[in-house]
Specification:
alpha/beta; 7-stranded mixed β-sheet; two-stranded antiparallel sheet; binds S-adenosyl-L-homocysteine
Length: 262
């Protein structure tokens, strides 16, 4: 079981497989006020940077599930490197439908919400693994600027304009699902470059070493078009952020409160 090889090649050198930089994960970890021993579940955990650094910095324990054997192996190496291998566990598996046996204080899917068939489905899936009072983390793109045409939306690698919402609409959509947005950390254009531009050097070096590979032509053509496409479209039009959600509290006439999931 694996993700398409193209991504294993172009993102082989990435520690973070989304438009976040290490400092943004530091900001997010602090923003969540993580306590030692807190349990974090991460669906689509990539190379494990979020769980490993939070284990080191906040003493969390956690489990990450990812479909890429390469990224999962890198995550395990990173855990050893940071001395947190006894705190975090990385499982190579398909995370669709994954429900944790032990409920998590933080249940995350950061940049892989197709795992639950979109943001709403992924939130519903994560909610099944969340303890009362826990926080769901969702990493999602949004339109920084609305693309003026469908053609421009496609150049941003969306299948259509309706793939993403504007930032206000996205926050509103979380509210409509019954969640309070309790924190957020957003990417910016520089952190997008860390995700996208890092692929260019990886592709260039891979091509040097694998000129006759069956993917060489595709990688060569991607390298020749991606830098201009990124700065013209994605960098200008697409935003990205991680949103922290908690089920809304519902008040009853007697004055007691419960979460909307109770
Ligand atoms: N959250 C990580 C990775 C985001 S990239 C980070 O912040 O770095 C998306 C990840 O989802 C990739 O690592 C990819 O291998 C993984 N993935 C894709 N489909 C998946 C699936 N069905 N189940 C588990 N992981 C999946």
């Amino acid at each position: 079981m694996d993700i398409p090889r193209f991504f294993n090649i172009t993102e082989s050198e990435h520690r973070i497989h989304n438009p976040f930089t290490p400092d943004k994960f530091v900001t997010l970890g602090a923003a969540l006020r993580l306590k030692p021993g807190a349990r974090v579940l991460d669906l689509g955990s990539g190379s494990g940077e979020m769980l490993c650094t939070w284990a080191r910095d906040h003493g969390i324990v956690g489990t990450g599930i990812d479909m890429s054997p390469l990224f999962t192996a890198q995550a395990k190496l990173r855990a050893k490197e940071l001395g947190v291998a006894h705190q975090v566990d990385f499982i190579h598996d398909d995370a669709s439908g994954y429900i944790a046996e032990e409920k998590a204080d933080v249940a995350a899917c950061v940049g892989a919400t197709w795992i639950g068939g979109g943001a709403a489905g992924t939130i519903a899936l994560l909610a099944k693994s969340l303890c009362t009072g826990g926080i769901i983390l969702i990493g999602e793109p949004y339109w920084r600027q609305l693309p003026p045409t469908e053609d421009i939306a496609r150049k941003c690698l969306a299948s259509s304009m309706s793939d993403f919402l504007s930032l206000p609409e996205l926050l509103e959509s979380f509210g409509n699902l019954g969640y309070d947005v309790v924190e957020m950390v957003l990417a910016n254009q520089d952190s997008w470059d860390r995700y996208e531009a890092a692929k260019w050097l990886t592709m260039r070096r891979w091509l040097e070493e694998n000129p006759d590979d069956e993917l060489a032509e595709e990688i060569r053509s991607t390298l020749s078009t991606e830098p201009v496409r990124h700065v013209t479209y994605t960098r200008e039009y697409v935003g990205w952020g991680v949103f922290a959600l908690m089920p809304k509290l519902v008040s009853f006439p007697c004055g007691s409160v419960a979460t909307s999931e109770d």
